[in-house]
Amino acid sequence: MSRFRSTALPLAAALMLAGPAFAQAPDAPPPPEAHGKHHPMPPQPARLSVSGSGQAVAQPDIATITLGVSSQAPTAAEAMSKTAAQQQKVIETLKAEGVEARDIQTSGLNLAAQMDYPENQAPKLVGYVAQNSVSLRVRDIAKLGEVLDKLVASGANEISGIGFSREDMGAAQDEARAAAVADARHKAELMAEAAGMRLGALRVLSDSPVIEAPQPLLMRAAMDAKAASTPVEAGELTVSAQVSAVFDLLPAGPPPAPGAEAPDAPPPPPPAN
């Protein structure tokens, strides 16, 4: 009996010593970083907003004219008929001078009664006035004065407006926009230097619609067909552009080496385990 006890005690002691080894769990991995952990944002540079303007000039190659015929007659039908006959002669003259049908468009047709208002008497109908107007484009500006004189000789007795334009304004518009961008950068560099800072990267650049200044009329109408050809000066067209720009403002000093500046955006968070 005593021999059984002596054998059991060492066995129990060995089991007690080995128990913690069997019960201990393996090392657990470190807890993953919490989602949404705050990453400090790098300091953002100050910003400078400026506007710029630019202009360019172009030579016009199209003249737009509104002219017409006005006739008076005792009856409305006679006034309309007389006006139509005169206007037909004007249109034939236009085509003979090389103006294409696509460049001739009727722009007005009016018929009005002419009244006489004698003192202390009822108004009296004395006739009718009919008007027929066309808008036309003349693509050979060099012969515009000669064309106008021939139109007047063929029956046109009203010239209400003339303007000049260019069929393709793309090159002038591009030149005006480029000048506006250069003006904006010049202003930004000047303001940054005055503030003791240095101009950084361009962040925003936008433009406004290009404006084409209307060309004023430079014409002396010669209604007498025997006079010298009507002088017409087309002048120049002015195209204006406006832009808005936003630049970074950086501390004064030499610009850093390429790649030395910190990126604007923070680094991405580490992937979750």
Automatic annotation (TrEMBL):
Pfam families, sorted: SIMPL
Keywords (A to Z) from UniProt: Signal
Region annotated Disordered, chain positions: 23-54, 250-273
One GO BP annotation of this record: DNA damage response
Gene3D superfamilies: Protein of unknown function (DUF541), domain 1 (3.30.110.170), Protein of unknown function (DUF541), domain 2 (3.30.70.2970)
Region forming the signal peptide: 1-23
UniProt keyword annotation of Iron present: no
Composition skew (Pro residues), residue ranges: 252-273
Top-level taxon: Bacteria
Keyword Signal among UniProt keywords: yes
InterPro entries in the record: 26kDa_periplasmic_antigen, SIMPL/DUF541
Name used for this protein in its record: DUF541 domain-containing protein
Taxonomic source organism: Paracoccus limosus
